[in-house]
TrEMBL record:
Source organism superkingdom: Eukaryota
Catalysed conversion reaction: Transfers a segment of a (1->4)-alpha-D-glucan chain to a primary hydroxy group in a similar glucan chain
Record flagged with keyword Endoplasmic reticulum: no
Protein's name according to its UniProt entry: 1,4-alpha-glucan branching enzyme
InterPro entries, per database record: A-amylase/branching_C (IPR006048), Branching_enzy (IPR037439), GH (IPR017853), GH13_cat_dom (IPR006047), Glyco_hydro_13_N (IPR004193), Glyco_hydro_b (IPR013780), Ig-like_fold (IPR013783), Ig_E-set (IPR014756)
Record domain Glycosyl hydrolase family 13 catalytic: where: 203-574
GO molecular function: 1,4-alpha-glucan branching enzyme activity; cation binding; hydrolase activity, hydrolyzing O-glycosyl compounds
Source organism of this protein record: Drosophila madeirensis
Similarity annotation: Belongs to the glycosyl hydrolase 13 family. GlgB subfamily.
One Gene Ontology cellular component annotation held by this UniProt entry: cytoplasm
Entry keyword annotation includes Disulfide bond: no
GO BP term, example: glycogen biosynthetic process
EC number(s) per entry: 2.4.1.18
Length: 690
């Protein structure tokens, strides 16, 4: 957490030992904390501790021994028999049976060949064969598979993914060359997708991302990347949210060693790397997914309706099953230990906790919504275990919850009875911006409504603020840039073309929306790849409905690289905004104090990290000698102006002018400064002397 938010609750154990004086929700927090502690005790007693329990990948799956024998293990409690088939035995499905162990575990020993070589070679194709209790043989991929690949279309082998042994010789394994950077105090996240990072109409690669995109991200002033769609998913258009192989890195973009290199290159540029992890549900795929792995409808999931997510058409995990917890917790450990990821964004947290809620269904904030029977406490317990394990394993790990519910204590430490996340996404913020742009004219915007949305968050629980993410870029919606400028982006983004009111307004508001979100909306900031320069159009993955086209599944970097186009203005402002945050550290300095939100003038002013921020959203009115309150006496000077010509502005702010504070109180503050505030302009003032 940022320093200002790193506050511990005193005497928490005393609170948990109290009963009669607790309110109902406090009693429920205590109960949940007790359930989590029971699981920790059970794991300590039965498994020798969380450290051993969360390394299931060292037990299950394939393991090559020093003598070149191979041990294979699976968990398939509903299977009658389990076999291994592949290239190594000419695909004889029943020639290599596993031995049944206790608790649904199965084990197979493959001795080395006569010449001492292993029976399974690097890139050998294999399948796990399950005999169910109806005596039917079913082919499956191992849940612990490290490398799975879809056959090329020209092979005419169908679309199901195939599992290949990943055991490269030592000379072909990537060796890390760089240490992890220090955990950022202020988190500035670049949300990205390797596959669509290519400018060409095709799937981008890990190597291309490392060599071409990572340097761009670094130059823009971001210190963290959040990588989507890494966990293997059979359906590309799912954006990675229908995971089929949880331990395999997506082979569309390259092999495991190339992903390791990409992360190492990011570390060399000082970037933290977060994985977008999907443990809220799983694909329904059977032959190349987890679904019905052991021939039953349960195994990793609940049976019946409880195991189905009707809105997502996917399966829901059984979080109270011992081996399911091992599988999921070990999965987090795997990506951290094997690939060197620095943390996670947990997708679908709200859906995990509230299966009955529809997409977009709101929450009132009533505590009964969070501490009643409608909450999936098994899922909540899993999230607490996951955060406890990750932060114990590595205190520098960062975890972010994709949560729209506002669940109290979600971002407080487990030791306090919280769920342990470091941040939650401020998901109401992008919805508010789209609502304003879509449904209201500029002069109808309520400054109080804007401020409320940006500041309405749980006290002492960190929030990631963002104006838009990948969600707003998907086909069927529009990015902020496209809402603002639409078809004019095709004809009037040249620096040589005549200026238009639509483009001028679009450039101005794009910058203002992003800066006020950055400075007022949270304790971290996120931007989706390309939106920093106002990438036009939308995202649409190749699918039947668009003739498998990659035209909209890419990023047009040529637009921002062309010095004759106005995209460069938005890009430069984004960079300057991040550099200002790096210099002054407003994201980790504690919440802002909003001293002014004037509906008539359309002006918002606030203080944060020793800076004074002034936003004029008026459509045409500029103000001279405008009073702005501040508690810090001294001389101020503009250090960032959205009206700077470098950012496509009209140069109405003189950065050399000094503003001496007046000790007369104003707007509830002990001092004020007088500034010139042009219409549709944001200015940041810093104190340059006492």
């Amino acid at each position: 957490m940022g320093d200002a938010m790193n506050v511990k609750v005193k005497d928490i154990e005393k609170l948990f030992s109290t009963d009669g004086y607790l309110r109902p929700f406090e009693r429920e927090i205590r109960r949940r904390h007790g359930v989590l502690q029971e699981w920790l005790d059970k794991i300590d007693q039965g498994e020798g501790g969380m450290d051993q329990f969360t390394q299931g990948y060292k037990y299950y799956g394939l393991h090559f021994q020093p003598d070149n024998s191979v041990i294979a293990r699976e968990w398939a409690p509903g299977a009658k028999n389990v076999y291994l088939a592949g290239d190594f035995n000419n695909w004889h499905w029943e020639s290599h049976p596993f031995k049944k162990l206790d608790f649904g575990k199965w084990e197979l020993h493959l001795p080395p060949n006569a010449d001492g070589s292993p029976q399974l070679k690097h890139l050998s194709e294999i399948k796990v064969i399950i005999r169910n209790h109806s005596d039917h043989l079913l082919d499956r991929l191992s849940p612990w598979a490290k490398y799975v690949v879809q056959p090329p279309k020209e092979a005419n082998q169908g679309v199901n993914y195939k599992q290949y042994v990943w055991q490269p010789p030592e000379s072909e394994r990537y060796q890390r060359q760089h240490s992890r950077p220090a955990r950022p105090k202020s988190l500035r996240i670049y949300e990205c997708h390797v596959g669509i990072a290519s400018q060409e109409p095709r799937v981008g690669t890990y190597d291309e991302f490392a060599d071409r995109i990572v340097p761009r991200i670094k130059r823009q002033g971001y210190n963290c990347i959040q990588v989507m769609a890494i966990m293997e998913h059979a359906y590309y258009a799912s954006f990675g949210y229908q995971v089929t192989s949880f331990y395999a890195a997506s082979s569309r973009c390259g092999n495991p060693e190339q992903l390791k290199r990409m992360i190492d290159v990011a570390h060399s540029h000082g970037l933290y790397v977060l994985l977008d992890v999907v443990h809220s549900h799983a694909s329904k795929n059977v032959q190349d997914g987890l679904n019905q792995f052991d021939g039953t409808n349960s195994c990793f999931f609940h049976d019946g309706a409880k195991g189905e997510h009707s809105l997502w058409d996917s399966r829901l995990f059984n979080y109270v099953e011992y081996e399911v917890l091992r599988f999921l917790l070990s999965n987090l450990r795997w990506w951290h230990d094997e690939y060197n990821f620095d943390g996670y964004r947990f997708d679908g947290v709200t859906s995990m906790l509230y299966h009955s809620r529809g997409i977009g269904e709101g929450f009132s904030g009533d505590y009964n919504e969070y501490f009643g029977l409608n909450v999936d406490t098994d899922a909540l317990n899993y999230l607490g275990l996951a955060n406890h394990m990750l932060h114990t394993l590595d205190p520098e790990v960062i975890t972010i919850a994709e949560d729209v519910s506002g669940m109290p204590t979600l971002c407080r430490p487990v030791s306090e009875g919280g769920i342990g996340f470091d941040y939650r996404l401020g998901m109401a913020i992008p919805d508010k911006w789209i609502e304003l742009l879509k449904e209201q004219s500029d002069d109808q915007w309520s400054m109080g409504d804007v401020v409320h949305t940006l500041t309405n968050r749980r006290w002492m629980e960190n929030t990631v603020a963002y104006a838009e993410s990948h969600d707003q870029a998907l086909v069927g919606d529009k990015t902020i840039a496209f809402w603002l400028m639409d078809k004019e982006m095709y004809t009037h983004m040249s620096t040589q073309s005549d200026s238009t009111l639509i483009i001028d307004r679009g450039l101005a508001l794009h910058k203002m929306i992003r800066l006020i979100t950055h400075a007022l909306g949270g304790e971290a900031y996120l931007n989706f790849m390309g939106n920093e320069f106002g990438h036009p159009e939308w995202l649409d993955f190749p699918r039947v409905g668009n003739n498998d086209s990659y035209h909209y599944a890419r990023r047009q970097w040529n637009l921002v690289d062309d010095n004759m186009l106005k995209y460069k203005y938005l890009n430069e402002f984004d960079r300057a905004m991040n550099e200002a945050e790096q210099r002054y550290g407003w994201l980790h300095s504690g919440p802002a104090y909003v001293s002014w939100k004037h509906e008539g003038d359309k002006i918002i002013a606030f203080e944060r990290a020793g800076l004074v921020f002034v936003f004029n959203f008026h459509i045409h009115q500029s103000f001279t000698g405008y009073r702005v309150g501040t508690n810090w006496a001294g001389t101020y000077q503009a250090v960032l102006s959205s009206d700077d010509p470098l950012f496509g502005g009209h140069n109405r702010i003189d950065g050399n002018v000094k503003h001496r504070s007046d000790p007369e109180g104003y707007a509830g503050r002990s001092n004020f400064i007088e500034v010139y505030s042009p219409s549709r302009t944001a200015v940041v003032y810093a104190r340059v002397s006492d």
